[in-house]
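One example copied in:
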Amino acid sequence: MRPVLTQLPRGARIYLPEEAARKRHVEGGLLDVFRRWGYREVVTPTFEYADVLALGTDAGVQENMFTLVDRETGRMLALRADITPQVARIVATRLRDEPKPLRLAYLTNVFRYDEPRVSHYREFYQAGVELVGLEKPEAEVEVIAMAIEGLRALGLGGFQIDLGHSGFLRGLLDQVKTDEARQLELRQALARKDVAALERVVADVAPPAHVAEALRTLPALVGGAPVLDRAAGCARNERSARALANLAEVYRLLTIYGLADSVLLDLGEVRGFDYYSGTYFEAYVAGFGAAVAGGGRYDQLLARFGYDCPAVGFAFDVGRVLAVMEAQGVAVAQPGPDFFIIDFTAEKTAALSLARRLRDGGAAVARDIISRGLEESLAYARAQHARHVLVVGGPGTPGDRLRALDLDTGGERTLRIAEVLAEPARHFGSAKGTDDG
């Protein structure tokens, strides 16, 4: 007999029942935050035509798409590698005439042929929002506030929002007369916070003195409100000055929200430089080496689909959030059946009637069909996170009665089966599904 192949593809992951319950807890908590801010969920297809997705997808992400051939048309298909281009296309085509702003939420999996990273796989899950049709700084503030509320709702501590603005660096690079390769070197040195490499590249490209000084200053433009004052001396071109004014207004509004203490300004950050058109941010948690959420403004994206409209959004990486929750010991209640029925009778009539009656009322009910001792069955019920155990026909229990055990409190009662069937809420009023209304 040939051995059964059980190896998963690289970058794939299985969520076992308790892991899946934690994942659903995170997703449900985030969707609840989005709902309370007025966002409505959209569901997009897992795959689309590759050339359509490419319209709104940056070249680097396009290279990492999983592709396949449509047998019907021969056209190339791609698994979605980013949800935002799909939402942008939907807005530009199906929701174009809807009143603005649009507040859209999503919860989905995306696929990228990347090397697996910290709690991040080739198939990973995102929960996020897109706020479309609002160009004022209040839009950025709303999504940042939602991100912080999401972190708090999940019980995460020690988090920080790194906030920057792509226009500030773009304004400086506009004044650097060199080729794209050298500009890329500048950005890579900034991304690494490599002061020595930055100094070398600046010397090589020899920009005007005030621009050179501004570029050298960027790695140090990190902190709170004083960063804005220090950056003002570097913003000697219109693009950088406009970006700084926008960032200052966002920070002012975050202060009014009472959230400025959770925000770190970083004008030397270049992650997302090619994607975002204005402010962008990432959420980090102490002791975890990767962002758990990120987003920003992308005003040019919808125009690629023929609809020039401002937009801002962000997404949580669900897998990374789960890893942080585990590291921080954030407890998540494990769901289980409301009732677990252990039946020692031969005819099974009472047990089946109880199960049907309780399920009809909305309760989750499992039966122990395997014949085994009471203690073994109780151990199984605890492992399944059951709350109530109903023992029918056990030793010393009259045929018209059952033993009811509450595994949360350790309490035990003997009840008439007919009375439980008639009025389950009378005996288990706090258990789900026993309210007869």
Remarks:
- The chain is about 40% helix and 20% strand.
- Residues 140 and 312 are 7 Å apart (CA to CA).
